[in-house]
Amino acid sequence: MSFDRIVKLLLIFAPVAVIAELAGADPVLVFVFAALGVIPLADLIGEATEELAVHTGPKIGGLLNATLGNAAELIITIFALREGLVELVRASITGSILGNLLLVLGLSILFGGLKNGIQQFDRRTAGLNATMLILAVIALLVPSLFDAALVENRAAELGLSEGVAVVMIVIYGLSVWYAFRQGDPLTREPATGENHHARWSVRFALGVLAAATLGIVFLSEVLVGAVGHVTETLGLTEFFIGIIIIPLVGNVAEHLVAVQVAYKNKMELSMAVSLGSSLQVALFVAPVLVFISLLMGGETLLLVFNGFELIALVAASLIAAFIALDGESNWLEGALLLAVYMIIAIAFFYLPAGA
């Protein structure tokens, strides 16, 4: 049975989660059902975007993908912001970047290398993405490091985060525009790597996109509502749930695409998916969430991350950049990336709340 079929079968958990929530079932089970239900809905958003790209052309399709690529995680974090779970939101931003750079890229390089040996990809594109990635991490570092001097000036703290967020969004917009100008739009290529012909009409694709988005909205509310019970019952911190579990739930379908294309010896596309998703989270999702938190009127999301997150982000971005710059990869590099991810995950698992 293919990965895609397995993911589609998980759709059964979407109504199961809603029924379990209405029936007052164990919150841990509700959380698990909702998390499993989000996975296929996120995949449907990606598939509907891909189908629309066939009808609209690569430029509009690329813009849709650049906007909706992390829609599931964005929706989940918006509900978390509404519930005041700011620490979980910040952790999910860090976790998404780490997951793409270490887990997804590691799995892609490992399985691709075991199947195909040394794999090559375009150094120029990979180098540009690596440079932007380091810039994105620097953008997250600056307000975090300067916050110590501004902690008693709330207006300055907010102004710094807002200013950095605006610059990050502008940079992301410029990167999308540059990709269009170079004739390499950020569309999601089919996992088969073959010429893709439209299977859905525009109306049907829009309907699937709307239905999947609406489904994620409902499940996100259920998922976030159960976080408190999960932390108490399983002994997990809100931080660990945000940095490990939420990113996996929101992006697992896209992760599978990256691994599949690497296995089929299309390492350049796999690199574009993993690095591109990291850039989208850092340069688009994170700053957008800053302004969304302002509109909600609750606790404002500042781009201020703790020292443990910053160390992990710097380490992940540097090792990913080093691997990308030489234009080739082998299975051992993939194993090393996975080892780093496991070490970081274990460390965050034992990190006490409020550390």
Walk me through this protein's architecture.
- It is a single chain.
- This protein has 355 residues and is an all-alpha fold.
- It has one domain: A middle domain of Talin 1 (Up-down Bundle), CATH 1.20.1420.
- It is 80% helix and 1% strand.
- A two-stranded antiparallel ribbon has the order 1-2.
- Helix 3 packs antiparallel against helix 4.
Labels describing this entry:
355 residues, mainly alpha, A middle domain of Talin 1, 14 helices
Topology:
Elements: H1 3-9, H2 13-22, H3 27-56, H4 58-68, H5 71-82, H6 86-116, E1 119-120, H7 123-150, H8 154-181, H9 202-225, H10 227-234, H11 238-263, H12 267-296, H13 307-325, E2 328-329, H14 331-350
Antiparallel strand pairs: 1-2
Helix pairs in contact: 2-3, 2-9, 3-4, 3-9, 3-11, 5-6, 5-9, 5-11, 5-12, 6-11, 6-12, 6-13, 6-14, 7-8, 7-12, 7-13, 8-12, 11-12, 13-14
Distance between the termini: 43 Å
> Radius of gyration, Cα only, in angstroms?
19 Å
The poorly predicted ranges are: 185-194
Question: Biggest sheet, in brief?
Answer: 2 strands, antiparallel
CATH topology: A middle domain of Talin 1
What is the level 1 CATH name? Mainly Alpha
Task: Give a quick precis of the structure.
With 355 residues, this protein is an all-alpha fold. 80% of the residues lie in helices and 1% in strands.
